[in-house]
Amino acid sequence: ATELNLPAERLKENEQVAVFSGNRLPERAEPLAMAYTGHQFGHFNPQLGDGRAILLGELLNHKNERFDVQLKGSGRTPYSRGGDGRAAMGPVLREYILCEFMHAAGIPTTRALAAVSTGENVMREHLLPGAIITRLSQSYVRVGTFQFFAAQQNFQAVRELADYVIARNYPEAAESDNPYQALLEAVIKRQAGLIAQWMQIGFIHGVMNTDNASIAGETIDYGPCAFMDEYHADTVFSAIDRQGRYAYRNQPPIGHWNMCRFAETLIPLLDEDGETGAAIAQQAINTYPDLYQNSWLNGMRNKLGLEQQGSDDEVLINNLLTIMSDNKADFTLTFRGLSDQELLPEALKHSADFQQWNSQWQQRLEIEIHSETDRQTAMRAVNPLYIPRNHLVEAVIRSAEDHDDFKPFHDLVALLEKPFQKQSQKQSTPDKYMQPPRPEQVVQNTFCGT
Description:
This protein is of the alpha+beta class. The protein is built from 15 helices and 9 strands.
């Protein structure tokens, strides 16, 4: 709100609450729901769209950056496909918590401006309290938006959409000899970098369909997303991902696959000759693996306090991940524990493999030029102490839904605004926010919910 020059106290005024609850339109607003198609779990679905979300308009922040304002859960749209267009409170609170954490962690994401209880129940498996989230994005255009027009062979509309995206999100592409090639390359680069950041923080999106792939390179549509506790590359949380298509380890190649689908929609724009256009698209797509790998490797180096590039760094990193998996070590506390030894998981402290790895890491650090103090400070700036652990998110949702108590929600949101810093003792038991779940607290599955 502050970044948009909206005083926080104004958001609670009746007039604003009426807007955020979908009961009042802002002046001159012409709300719309967006159409799109997409590949869902690899299968093309030609009939998608904003089934419970409407765009209200645009806002400019103090940097003159433009954001789309969207209500989610405000009711039926032309694309609701038999649904009620509403959202339950749990998924709304989950998205609010996670997207604001991602922003605080420096990962591109949609933002949450407000969450409002509707005072009405929504029917899912059983009655649940309803809510609406007001969220912001640099653009809600998705890969599926381009697929919508391409599937109709309406390439004039694809061109108009591409021109809009270039003007709105990639103005530098307009200066290129081939603006559409420049757009494709820029979107691929952003997507590769985004997914590398997900991997570096243990984030699992859970539903990487092409209709959930943001052209602006933001994390969007949080649904069943979750963070790993114990590190396992095959971790899946989404209850509907029974085959593990969107498991943690599969996110980079799925990102590549989604970019292939985007490139296909642009082929007629890349060159008048179809074969030449396809070759240009393939050339751009071929850059994804290296873009991802370089972004991932540089980010993982930072997590280990490595500023210099070593030829064996990738081996060193992967060996640590293997040891973490073998010892069921917590992902977040392992990396934070490399700079704050007291936080290192007990299983690693007693692991001979980890001790051997630690010796190799210490030897590798000898080629670094910064002091140990500076290195530890840099590591703490990229390895969070707090993440929205699944059991914590579930606990605040239960408190809100079952007891109408939102204090745990506000406490968690406030804590996650500074995920890299040790928090003060204002919370009654601050350590509970950093510790992994006890066995009885583990959340095995997450659900789309909204």
